[in-house]
């Protein structure tokens, strides 16, 4: 059994700038299009939803974007997060691989999402906004924005996907502790919600529906903006503090990853860890093998089409070019609520198209098996989302053992699973099913993709 080794940075080493991969890519990202005219959107189109600074960050090609001092000051509450060598897991697997994880569960809400929530709340407060609306799947994003709202004196209203709202009452309670209002989506409070309820009263909801509800309210109220917890360029940008810190921590460890791994829902925690390493590679540094891990029940990167699509079910958002299962696709029930989105971050989609990353899909029982093995060696109970990354890590470590090669593997442990213990109970009771997506629904959803001039 190896001893636990943590690589801890002094808080003065919290990055002063976020890293923007757009500056290092061989081609620029495709522009978002207006949902009506299908022409590239301008800042004015986004102004009803986002503050000016975030709109700028959405389109900037600058390599480095300064982190405002008040945001860095708040980061000090939980950053720099530790990089931990998983020596006991290595010993249990009897692998020559060296396994490291960056642990983002140390934030108050328990995931990486607070990295962007405090930044978004800061820019909205600066722009004179009074209230934020948002969606949440598993509740990690809703609770992160609730806390960030409290820190900056902003009201927060959260539309929580019905399936999770019923499964995870303590996430709702957490949002209320931090002063937010959380309602089950689809709700009767919006046009988009009422339309879905009329058609499908028993729906379990989806992130696409919840986004429509949150966007509708923000678009109709001048004092209210919308905040998104993943997918958009500015969200991925804020998450790069993870990888920037990890690069410094690997220098302390006198090591460097051959393989970097993250789970992908909308792509933000994956990009947060991986993009700084890809940037170093694109600027002539060492090559890393980057692996995005997703659920087989919602296989956006492995089965989706790379095309322009809406970000939401109600078709209120701009069209973005991404890997998508179609905006009407609703995945079957599974426990990683944070990975149930029909689309993928345009920047993660682009780096896959450029051959810079690969993606793999996993069934949930194999993921829970990996999460339990991790927990029995390293202690931390992972969020079900992260279990997808851990599955790939263990697979790669066992491959190293078979091949007799000692690779260095790094992964993002994006959050803890303390609010997901029901999922673990279901796993132990043998109640989890490995359900595949409905192929007919996927075909129908893809057939309904918007038509856009080439
Ligand atoms: C939300 C969430 C995810 C999925 O979102 P990404 O934008 O893909 O990171 C993954 N892990 C945790 C812990 C989450 O809360």
Provide the descriptors you would attach to this structure in a database record.
Rossmann fold; 15 strands; 19 helices; 454 residues; alpha/beta; 4-stranded parallel sheet
Question: What does this entry look like structurally?
Answer:
The protein has helices at 43-46, 52-59, 69-75, 87-93, 114-126, 140-152, 162-167, 169-177, 191-199, 207-220, 233-239, 241-253, 268-282, 300-303, 346-353, 364-378, 384-403, 421-428, 439-447; strands spanning 5-7, 17-19, 64-66, 83-85, 98-103, 131-136, 155-161, 181-185, 224-226, 259-263, 289-295, 305-310, 319-324, 358-362, 408-413. By secondary structure, the protein is an alpha/beta fold. The strands form four sheets. A seven-stranded mixed β-sheet has the order 1-4-5-15-10-11-14, with helices on both faces. The protein is globular, with a radius of gyration of 20 Å. The termini are far apart. Bound molecules: pyridoxal-5'-phosphate. Pyridoxal-5'-phosphate binds next to helix 6, helix 13 and helix 17.
């Amino acid at each position: 059994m190896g001893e636990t080794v943590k690589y801890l940075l002094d808080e003065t080493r919290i990055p002063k700038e976020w890293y923007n991969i757009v500056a290092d890519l061989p081609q620029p990202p495709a522009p978002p299009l207006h949902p009506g005219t299908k022409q590239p959107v301008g800042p004015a189109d986004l102004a009803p939803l986002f503050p000016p600074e975030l709109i700028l960050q959405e389109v900037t090609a600058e390599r480095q974007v300064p982190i405002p001092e008040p945001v860095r000051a708040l980061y000090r509450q939980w950053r720099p997060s530790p990089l931990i060598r998983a020596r006991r897991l290595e010993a249990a697997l009897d692998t020559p691989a060296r396994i490291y994880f960056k642990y983002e569960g140390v934030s108050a809400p328990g995931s990486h999402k607070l990295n962007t929530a405090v930044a978004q709340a800061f820019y909205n407060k600066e722009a004179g906004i009074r209230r934020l609306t948002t969606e949440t799947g598993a509740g990690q994003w809703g609770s992160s924005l609730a806390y960030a709202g409290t820190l900056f004196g902003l009201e927060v209203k959260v539309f929580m996907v019905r399936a999770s709202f019923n499964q995870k009452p303590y996430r709702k309670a957490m949002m209320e502790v931090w002063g937010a209002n959380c309602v089950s989506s689809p709700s009767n409070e919006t046009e988009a919600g009422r339309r879905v309820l009329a058609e499908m009263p028993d729906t379990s909801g989806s992130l696409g529906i919840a986004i429509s509800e949150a966007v509708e309210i923000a678009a109709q109220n001048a004092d209210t903006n919308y905040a998104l917890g993943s997918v958009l360029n500015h969200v991925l940008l804020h998450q790069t503090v993870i990888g920037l810190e990890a690069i410094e921590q690997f220098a302390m460890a006198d090591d460097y990853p051959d393989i970097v791994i993250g789970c992908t829902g909308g792509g933000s925690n994956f990009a947060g860890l991986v993009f700084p390493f890809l940037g170093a590679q694109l600027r002539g540094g060492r090559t890393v093998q980057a692996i995005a891990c997703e659920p087989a029940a919602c296989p956006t990167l492995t089965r989706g089409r790379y095309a322009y699509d809406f970000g939401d079910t109600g078709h209120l958002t701009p069209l973005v070019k991404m890997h998508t299962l179609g905006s009407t696709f609703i995945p079957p029930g599974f426990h990683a609520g944070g990975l149930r989105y029909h689309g993928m971050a345009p920047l993660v989609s682009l780096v896959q198209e450029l051959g810079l990353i690969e993606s793999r899909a996993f069934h949930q029982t194999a993921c829970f098996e990996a999460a339990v093995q991790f927990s029995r060696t390293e202690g931390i109970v992972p969020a079900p989302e992260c279990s997808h990354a851990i599955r790939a890590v263990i697979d790669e470590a066992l491959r190293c053992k078979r091949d007799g090669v000692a690779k260095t593997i790094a992964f993002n442990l994006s959050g803890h699973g303390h609010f997901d213990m029901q999922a673990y109970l279901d796993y132990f009771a043998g109640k989890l099913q490995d359900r595949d997506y409905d192929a007919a629904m996927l075909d129908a959803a893809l057939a309904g993709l918007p038509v856009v001039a080439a």
